[in-house]
Specification:
By secondary structure, the protein is an alpha/beta fold. About 40% of the residues lie in helices and about 20% in strands. Strands 3-2-1-4-5-10-11 form a seven-stranded mixed sheet, sandwiched between helices. It binds 6-O-phosphono-beta-D-fructofuranose (F6P).
Length: about 325
């Protein structure tokens, strides 16, 4: 059991709204419990490059409501190598930091797990990715804000789609995950959804598009960027081969999905996760992920997050299709 004296927090991977609320909660809870807190700049890079900032109570004032991450984030190739992880440990050790909180996705947790096996450092993961695809937790920070960003965009696209009786392929994030696409499709009344987890019957979808065009109806098709067809452009090209492209438009939403002030849900969960991460360290725990299960904030073995990706509720797919038959 590692007795924690000082702690460090970092954000890693793609930023997600609510990360700042989690940083604030971690730092304030650390201060409350008499621990010294450090922020690490740009994820695992900062550990290696020795870029730390001491964070006190006031340093995290007025950040809860902001998107992005005040610490900066990155994906760090060097951390895959043992010699760099050793340097990272030395930089922590010289500050007597023995607890590390990693806010990020499963890739970040893989690095953190290996790190804690090699060095006497307690690690706790806080799930932070708009993709909400981390196994073991029902919720990762940023998902709700991203979903709302997308829904707002789809509502606007619907105005022009309906006016022109057009079919819109709306591409959303999710290189390896369709959780975002599936949830947005169900909640925005989309007629179809493409995801990496499922190969679609293109003839059936073509038929659906043809029927919509003949009936002079508009449709929204949500496409996860990593879907099995290869994204919205590829689906558009496929429809073009059947002379259907005239009525079809593409809208790639891009990084706008990941920005903006976090919603209530992201602020609340980030705040709850951050405090629980500190309490876990104080109790001498390590290799845990804080998360959400059946509406409770819980901690679980960090290894769970590494086992597989969480997929969305596939029943939504049936629902989306059921509600778009006319
Ligand atoms: O934040 C997760 C995610 O949005 C994925 O869905 C996406 O594939 C990836 O990040 C893209 O991020 P970036 O452009 O920062 O590499």
């Amino acid at each position: 059991m590692v007795k924690v004296q000082n702690i460090a927090v970092l954000t890693s991977g793609g930023d997600s709204p609510g990360m700042n609320a989690a940083i604030r909660s971690v730092v304030r809870a650390a201060v409350y419990h008499g621990l010294k807190a450090y922020g690490v700049v740009d994820g695992f890079n900062g550990l290696i490059k020795d870029e730390f900032v001491e964070l006190g109570y006031s340093d995290v004032s007025n950040i809860l409501q902001t998107g992005g991450t005040i610490l900066g984030t990155a994906r760090c190739k060097e951390f895959h190598e043992k010699e760099f992880r050793k340097e990272a440990y030395e930089n922590l050790n010289k500050r007597n930091i023995d607890g590390l909180i990693v806010i990020g996705g499963d890739g970040s947790f893989t690095g953190a797990t290996i790190f804690s096996q090699e060095h006497p450092i307690a690690v706790i993961g806080i799930p932070g990715t708009i993709d909400n695809d981390i196994n073991g937790t029902d919720y990762s920070i940023g998902f709700d804000t991203a979903v709302n960003n997308i829904i707002e965009a789809v509502d606007k696209i619907r105005d022009t789609a309906a006016s022109h009786h057009r079919i819109f392929l709306v591409e959303v994030m999710g290189n390896n995950s369709g959780v975002l696409a599936l949830n947005v499709a169900a909640a925005s009344g989309a007629e179809e959804v493409f995801m990496p987890e499922k190969k679609e019957d293109m003839e059936e979808i073509r038929g659906k598009v043809e029927r919509a065009i003949q009936a002079n109806k508009s449709s929204i098709i949500i496409v996860a960027e990593g879907d099995q067809m290869g994204g919205a452009k590829e689906i558009f090209n496929y429809l073009g081969e059947y002379d259907l492209a005239d009525k079809v438009r593409i809208s790639v939403l891009g990084h706008i999905q990941r920005g903006g002030n976090p919603t209530f849900l992201d602020r609340l969960n980030a705040t709850l996760y951050g405090e629980k991460a500190i309490v876990s360290l104080i109790k001498g725990k390590s290799n845990l992920m804080i998360g959400h299960q059946q509406n409770k904030i819980v901690s679980m073995d960090l290894k769970l997050a590494l086992e597989k990706k969480s997929i969305g509720n596939m029943d939504y797919l049936k629902l989306i299709r059921k509600l778009s038959v006319y």
